[in-house]
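Message: A physicist's question: would you kindly supply an amino acid chain plus fold tokens?
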Amino acid sequence: MASPAAVNCSGAARRILLLPTTTTRPATRSFPGRLSAVTSRPNTTLPSTPRTKSKSSPKTQPPTTPPPQPLQTRRTYHSTTHPTPPSPFTQAETTLLTTALASHIPTHGFTLSSLTLAARDLSLLDISPSFLGPSPVARLIHFHLYTTRTTLPSLASQHSDLLSGLSVSEKIELLTWLRLKQNEPIIQHWQQALAVMAQPSQVPVAVRELAMLADEIYYLAGDKSVDPSWYTKRAALSGIYAAAELFMTTDKSERFQETRRFLRRRLQEAEELGGAVRSVGEWVGFTASAGVNVLRSKGVRI
């Protein structure tokens, strides 16, 4: 029941009560980093107060890292204008492998026993060869191939009196023979090493070392070819060297003279074949150019 004061109110008070009023919604709080769940309408009656920027501490910039340097690509050919590529063996690996190669391989061959005995000589544990990788024996053979190839320039300088005055083909024969002679102390175990490097996982390493050896021999011999024969010469020498190396494992002659004769015959055949191929190429080129000139003289536009 309404009170008497509310019923008997004056007309002016009634008019005031009946006037439309403008209601405003409460302003919603905004949180940094979040979207407000309620969208507020602009207030048409009250003036909007300007927002004050909150003072924030200056942002610390993350430390700038220098841009990565481009990796040095390892060249697969001999060059005097490029730095020598780094050794694929660490200092610890080189020490262990050198000891095994010099002291134990002539007796025990390319086996894990040679690496274990080398580790004992260096006062290391017997399990030390395991840090060479999943195939320590293949790593040992790779080290032999690498060291014999990289020491070939110094070996050539020791025989500079023999190399002077020889032709390029004669120098190639002598340098290849000097490289084969480096296998003499371990020749009785080299068939075993070849069998290990013939495994599919080791073929890329063996082929790369063989290609780099052929390039080293041609460079030391003074070959300066820049035509496509640059590739064919090195490919032919790689095959000849591999055949001579395998022949040497079964050679029983004094000082491996049969191996040297075998090497000389193969190199002569390759040179004759290369000369025949060059002659055929020259003949084909001359015939083709002559035919083109005849057709042009007949009015054919070529």
